Amino acid sequence: DLAQRMSERAVDVVKYFMKQGQMMKPGDLIDADTAELVATDFGHTVKRVAESDIEGAMFKVEDKPENMEPRPPVVTIMGHVDHGKTSLLDAIRHAKVAAGEAGGITQHIGAYQVDKDGHLITFLDTPGHEAFTAMRARGAQATDIAVLVVAADDSVMPQTIESINHAKAAGVPIIVAINKIDKPSANAQKVRTELLRHEVFVESMGGEVLDVEVSATKGTGIDKLLEAIILQAEVLDLKADPDRTAEGVVIEARLDKGRGPVATVLVQTGTLIPGDIIVVGNEWGRVRALIDDQGDSVETAGPSMPVEVLGLQGVPRAGDTFGTTETEAKAREISEYRQRLAREKAVAKHAGQRGSLEQMMSQLQTVGVKEFPLIIKGDVQGSVEAIAIALEKLGTDEVRARIVHSGAGAITESDISLAETSGAAIIGFNVRANPQARQAAEQAGIEIRYYNVIYNLVDDVKQAMSGLLSPER
Ligand code: GDP
Q: Do residues 141 and 170 lie in contact, with contact meaning Cβ atoms separated by under 8 Å?
């Protein structure tokens, strides 16, 4: 990279290092000081460009307090498999399409908006917490409210608990939709009671979490659910400034044969218009057209509105954030800079900079955190509980283990993304990670520790925790 930027041959740069007694090959990393030295010795003038100089061309716009206006809430539907997430999303969409847009063919663009008595609500169309956590792992928080679907004939199940933990880790309020209420075996009360055990206290149980009984297939309770969402949104007092350049997040993106890269973005503040020059993650483009969830071309997209963006140069990733720049040159520069950074990161990761339990502890220490976040997966619920109790006993006034999530079963991708967002270490007791999870962990640089003796597990955590207390490293 350095050779290329100096218009020199890579082999000459390698030779230069060799003369200094250093064996280097293309792709190896050098620090900025060394790079400067090399460039100077090759007779080039070096101008140091700070990240802030490049990135600073974006996001310099801020929300103006006097321009702040209410914006629609953005809702994600989560819950256990087969509890009715997809059915509920369809029911909500159909209830509204039938009433409004005559014969409108709805487009699946990854999100849609409904109008309930003049209040707009945005639904993210990918059910489940995978999309939710993938976004959070990239630092984007798109969701304001999580609707937790629990089937009344099945009650609280493992992914229900996972969803609760994901929402809690993100600080997103939950509304409980007790689904399949039409079934003879439905028992809504059991759902409410079981939720208590996971610290979700619905109103009738003396808590503040709203709950609504629905039947996604019969369409009952949908209006009530929408009302609950509006109520919750009012409490949250969601606002944005529509009178500025847009910022937001990618919900999904793909390469379309006819239209090129297509990204569905959620505008989070400001207003996006055709002609805007945007930088999206590592990509950039000039907005050629904006398409809404009805498949119609629109001239503007304001806060909380999902739209498909055409005109990008490449395909960004879900969870990437976007912002605007004034010129195409600036957008290209930022995108090239970020692509280079991403390459360097990949190389560095390849060089084996893996996070270990100990490294994590010292990182926690430097930021002054005295809680040790953990995710525990075990073969049976009983052993998981025993481990949790043993670890909680280790806690002192100064440091304690915080169990972000625990459960029986293999370590999955969902555990990895939760670990990524909550900074937790993962512990497997008599269970392994599935191949996808292993790959995800490797990519994210997250270490998974396996044990089959509780004593060893507790002892390791104890040692790591005492490391957190020691003053040096
Ligand atoms: P998901 O995996 O959470 O997205 O669940 P689906 O929406 O695919 O629903 C799983 C199954 O439950 C499907 O066969 C649905 O028809 C059924 N189902 C969903 N909601 C209801 C409901 O309110 N009542 C009844 N009786 N069945 C439902």
A: yes
Residue 176 bridge partners (DSSP): 148, 211
ipTM confidence: 0.99
> Whole-angstrom Cα distance, residue 173 to residue 159?
17
* Residue 466 phi, psi dihedral angles, 5° rounding: -70, -30
Q: Is the CB of 215 under 6 A from ligand 1?
A: yes
Residues contacting 79, CB < 8 A, separation 6+: 85, 127, 128, 148, 149, 150, 159, 160, 163, 177
Is the beta carbon of 220 within 6 A of some atom in ligand 1? no
Helix, strand or coil, per DSSP, at residue 285: strand
Q: Which helix (H) or strand (E) element contains residue 53?
A: helix 51-55
Whether 85 lines ligand 1, by a CB cut-off of 6 Å, is yes
> Using 50, 70 and 90 to split pLDDT, how confident is the model at 275?
very high
Cα(216) to ligand 1 centroid in Å equals: 7
Q: Is the CB of 84 under 6 A from ligand 1?
A: yes
User: Which residues 6+ apart lie within 8 Å of 399 measured at CB?
Assistant: 370, 371, 372, 465, 468, 469
Residue 304 CB partners (closer than 8 Å, separation 6+): 71, 72, 73, 74, 113, 120, 122, 238, 240, 266, 267, 268
Residue appearing with tokens 């369809």: 90
- At 189-217, the pLDDT tens digits run 999 999 999 999 999 898 999 999 999 99
The dihedral region occupied by 235, where left means phi > 0, alpha psi between -120 and 50, and beta the remainder, is alpha
Ligand 1 atom nearest to CA at 183: 26
Q: Bridge-partner residues for 429, per DSSP?
A: 378, 451
| Residues in the annotated binding site for GTP | 79-86, 125-129, 179-182
**Digit-coded pLDDT (tens) for 420-458:** 887 888 999 989 888 888 888 888 878 788 888 888 888
| Cβ neighbours of residue 104 closer than 8 Å, sequence gap 6 or more | 97, 294, 295
Name the percent of the chain lying above pLDDT 70. Answer: 85
* Mean predicted lDDT score pLDDT of the chain: 85
pLDDT at 349 exceeding the cut of 80 = no
